[in-house]
Amino acid sequence: MTRVTSYCRTVLDRAGVGYAVTDSRGNLLWCNRALGAVLGVPVEQAYGRSLPALLPGVPEVPAPVREVLVPGPKWLEVRCSRLGDDLMYEVVDVSAWRDRELTVTQEADALRRAQALGRMGTWEWSIREDRVIWSDTLLEMFGFSAGTAFDFELYSQLVHPDDLPMIEETLDAALKTGSVFTYTHRMLRPDGKERVFECFGEVVVGDDGTPLRALGTAHDVTQSSRVHDELVRMAEQDPLTGLPNRRALTRALEQELANNGSGALLVLDLDNFKDVNDLRGHAVGDRVMRMLASALQSRLGDRLIARLGGDEFAVVLPGASPKDASEVADGLRDAVAGFPLAGIGTPARITVSTGLAEFGPGDSWELVLANADLALYASKAAGRDRVTVYEPNHYADTVKRVSVLDRLRAALAGNGLALYGMPMVELTTGQVLGHELLLRLEDQQEPYLGPADFLPVAERSNLILEVDRWVLTTAIDALVAQPDPRLRFNVNVSGRTLEDPDFGNFVLDKLGSAGVAPGRLGLEITETAAVTNLDAAVTLATQLRSFGCRITLDDFGSGFGSFVHLKHLPITGIKIDGEFVKGIETNDADAVLVSGIVQIANGLGLSAVAEWVERPSQVDALKRLGVRVGQGFHLGKPIPLRDVVSAERMPPNGALSSQVVGAEDGARS
Known about the structure:
Elements: H1 2-14, E1 18-22, E2 28-31, H2 33-39, H3 43-46, H4 51-54, E3 63-70, E4 74-83, E5 86-93, H5 95-117, E6 121-126, E7 131-134, H6 136-141, H7 152-158, H8 164-177, E8 181-188, E9 194-205, E10 211-220, H9 222-234, H10 246-258, E11 263-270, H11 274-280, H12 282-300, E12 305-309, E13 312-318, H13 322-337, E14 352-359, H14 365-381, E15 387-389, H15 393-401, H16 404-413, E16 417-426, E17 432-441, H17 451-459, H18 463-481, E18 489-493, H19 495-498, H20 503-514, E19 521-526, H21 527-532, H22 534-546, E20 550-556, H23 562-566, E21 573-576, H24 578-581, H25 588-604, E22 607-610, H26 616-624, E23 629-630, E24 639-640, H27 641-646
Parallel strand pairs: 14-15, 17-18, 18-19, 19-20, 20-21, 21-22, 22-23
Antiparallel strand pairs: 1-2, 1-5, 3-4, 4-5, 6-7, 6-10, 8-9, 9-10, 11-13, 11-14, 12-13, 16-17, 16-23, 16-24
Helix pairs in contact: 11-12, 12-13, 14-15, 16-18, 18-20
């Protein structure tokens, strides 16, 4: 038995498939070398580390095969099953298969286009004579006039140098086996433009197996390649600043810890940056954010800085002592304080508060980030514009400061919550088609807490379950008070509520007892919450949609994998993330992505609503791209629910006039 056990361990260790065993919290208990290679961490140092942090996207509970994209990029198929009280993972690298699948799909598309448009380029290589004949169409695609003398040597000079070895290896292998072949490569045309070509070919052999000639086609796939690259980039890059995002930061920090690294983490928060957005609008705010991000990155060199979201950044400093890290933080603080803003029309000076936390072997990335956050809160409480090093007493101080949950509980019990309706408007006619209901805390206490202040706190506790049920109950009561079937509401559902197994029945019971048609109520689930709780989101959406409720995927496109999850979620509509809409008139990449989203939505029979519509020019651009419905301050500001219910049902109300309105879109609140 001992010998058999030894053989089993050897086989698993030599297997090309990755295997791992974790405890119920996702911490690695064992993995083989194949999985260690995928994680980029030596096997011995991976034990005790968080597998979901090292491999974002893996299921954290038993689940059938799930596809996960990791940097490289690589596509993995991950299966999670229960092993006693622990979890067993099987990880298979299917990148090559996906590449072949993508290539075959592109080839089929290329052939159809060639038949329809005659724009397929062809070539033929006479192997014995070593002579290549190029079609006139292909020469024009390469940037040359028809009939130009063009040999393989000149072709090789134009191919991207990183792609040429791959082409030569592919052709050599095809000549030896006589098989079909395919490859995709970049080419720099004589006019200086880089294009991407997908090529497909086959080798013709004689009776004795000697290769006689090779035939091939080439298709310009530059546009689809750019869209694909953009989606890959979105996986770990902040779309506004171009910096790495939270996902990239946690992966880098966990890898550093898995390799027994030590150092420091900085979390920076721009003080009162909301004032810039409120006073000058989000366009100016975004411009300032990009400039500050660039200045911080320049100051740090090749050290990792990520944007965590909003006005918050984080910096990983491997090997740095607290003193060294404090000096770096002071330098960043000085860089922000000294940044010239007078010419932009913003407040004369922006400051930054910083929390600093040490890390070392045995720490987890969650603990390090939490400690840095607590130190950051201490910096803000002490007056902002300073650097604070984490100390254990910061936790106790934070507990004393946090009264948000108490206020929220009191508001639930004492009518301190209110709903506001933001209209969703048909862009051609101006007709209001429904309202998204937004939550406000109106408890008459100071300081004022906006949704961004109290909702994240509530979502970290079970109180959000009560809040979501209050919102839903209030919405249904309003639909009862105004039976007009044209009055329709969308309510937002938190990620925590998705995991509540009783919520679906609660919704249906409320609708049934109130006598409200299910189609008048829609639930909005953010893409991030849906992806994080995919199984729960599918279960809830399936249950409610089967009874006629509308299910909308909110902030669509904000995270990578959006299109993949459309296959699994039984939704009725999507809301296009405002990041793609705010610059739709001038940003070609945004226009391409929005156009693609609309085409996919139409093909799947889904409605599509554009968020953050703040200017008349956005309306014109969205209509050209096929977007039918939008919401934002240009189309209508949020108004109290009681006013929505009591208002007469009116025809188009001038929402599409050129009236200048505030920049902040209530749908973001």
